[in-house]
Design brief:
This is NADPH:quinone oxidoreductase family protein. By secondary structure, the protein is of the alpha/beta class. It contains 12 helices and 15 strands.
C-alpha cells in the first residue's frame, strides 16, 4: 500500500514522502480499515515539525483522523465487522490502509458521507467535551467561541446552538465571518478589528460570557478574562496563536470564574465510555441535521503535504479533507 511518511522534522511540504510499505495486519483488539478520507488537523503540522506532545520515531505516518471501511478485525473485536463504515482517530492514518485499536473506532453516521464523516471525530468530540463536560453549558448561556470559523471552532458553534445557547464567534478576518454565521453564531467579532472584551459586554448587556471556548490562547485568553460572566467557565482547548497565557489566580478569585483545561485524548484513554456516549449523541445530531462538518476543501491523496501545509498558515476555514482514493 501507499503511505505518507515524515522522513525528517520540518515543514510538511518539505518532509513528507510517499512510500510503498507492506499492508498492515490487525492484531488482537485491532481493526484494519481501508481509508476513504483523512481530515487534516493542526497536530499534523506539529507532528511534521517534531513539536507535538507525542514524537513518533522517524520515519512515521502522520494523520490522526479518518473515515473508511473495515477490512478485517483482530481477535477479540466483536462490535465491528468487515464492510462496516467507520470513523476513527489515532496517529498514523494518512495511508491507504490503517490499523487502529477497536476502542478508537466507531460506526460512521449514516447522515454523513465519507468526506464529511472524516472531520467528525476529533473536532466534534473536542467541542462536545469542552462545552458539555468542562464548560457545563446550559440552554440560554452566552457562549464565546474563539477561532469560530476553524474546524473545532465551527463544531463548537454548531453544538452550542443545538443545545440552546447564544453564541458569539470570534474570527481572524473578514473572509471568515460568513462561516461563523453559517455555523449559527448570533454575533461575529473580528480580532483584527474589534475590542473583543468591550463588544462581548455590549452584546450581552453587561452580563458577559458564561462559557468561553478557547483554542487560541494568547490575547484571546486575556480578552476572555475581561468579559467572562460571574461564575463563568473559561475552557482552555489549545494555543493556536503560539502563545501560552499565564493565568492570574487572583483575577479568577476576585471575578469568581473558573479555568478548565481540556485534553480530549485523556477521555479516550481513561473514559472511553464517555467517548462512546458522545459519539452516539453526535450521530443523533447529525441525523437531525443539527451538525455537519464544514469542509473548506477536498484534496487528492497525492497532494496531502500541501493540504497539511495550508493549516500552518492559519488562513483556512472549516476542514481540509484528503480523499485517499484519488
Amino acid at each position: 500500500m501507499r503511505a505518507w511518511h515524515v522522513t525528517r522534522h520540518g515543514e510538511p511540504e518539505e518532509v513528507l514522502e510517499l512510500v510503498d510499505v507492506p499492508d498492515p495486519v490487525p492484531g488482537p483488539g485491532e481493526v484494519l480499515i481501508r481509508v476513504a478520507a483523512v481530515a487534516a488537523n493542526f497536530p499534523d503540522v506539529l507532528l511534521s515539525r517534531g513539536e507535538y506532545q507525542v514524537r513518533p520515531p522517524l520515519p512515521f505516518t502522520p494523520g490522526i483522523e479518518l473515515s473508511g471501511t473495515v477490512v478485517a478485525v483482530g481477535d477479540g473485536v466483536e462490535d465491528l465487522a468487515p464492510g462496516q463504515r467507520v470513523v476513527g482517530s489515532g496517529i498514523g492514518v494518512l495511508s491507504e490502509l490503517a490499523v487502529l485499536p477497536a476502542g478508537d473506532v466507531h460506526p460512521a453516521p449514516d447522515a454523513l458521507d465519507d468526506i464529511a464523516a472524516a472531520g467528525l471525530m476529533i473536532a466534534y468530540q473536542t467541542a462536545w467535551f469542552g462545552l458539555h463536560r468542562r464548560g457545563r453549558m446550559r440552554a440560554g448561556d452566552w457562549v464565546l467561541v474563539h477561532a469560530a470559523a476553524g474546524g473545532v471552532g465551527a463544531a463548537a458553534v454548531q453544538l452550542a446552538v443545538a443545545a440552546g445557547a447564544r453564541v458569539i464567534g470570534v474570527v481572524g478576518s473578514a473572509t471568515k465571518t460568513d462561516v461563523a454565521r453559517a455555523a449559527g453564531a448570533e454575533a461575529v467579532l473580528r480580532r483584527d478589528a474589534d475590542d473583543i472584551a468591550a463588544r462581548v459586554k455590549e452584546i450581552t448587556g453587561g452580563h458577559g460570557a458564561d462559557v468561553v471556548f478557547d483554542p487560541v490562547g494568547g490575547a484571546a485568553f486575556t480578552a476572555s478574562t475581561k468579559c467572562i460572566a460571574f461564575e463563568g467557565r473559561l475552557v482552555v482547548v489549545g494555543f493556536a496563536s503560539g502563545e501560552i497565557p499565564q493565568a492570574a489566580a487572583n483575577h479568577a478569585l476576585v471575578k469568581n470564574y473558573s479555568i478548565d483545561g481540556l485534553h480530549w485524548a485523556l477521555y479516550a484513554q481513561r473514559r472511553p465510555d464517555l467517548v462512546r456516549e458522545a459519539h452516539a449523541e453526535l450521530t443523533r445530531l447529525a441525523a437531525e441535521g443539527a451538525i455537519r462538518p464544514v469542509v473548506h476543501e477536498v484534496v487528492p491523496f497525492l497532494k496531502a503535504p500541501a493540504a497539511i501545509q495550508l493549516l500552518a498558515g492559519g488562513t483556512t476555514t472549516g476542514r481540509i479533507v484528503i480523499e485517499v482514493g484519488t
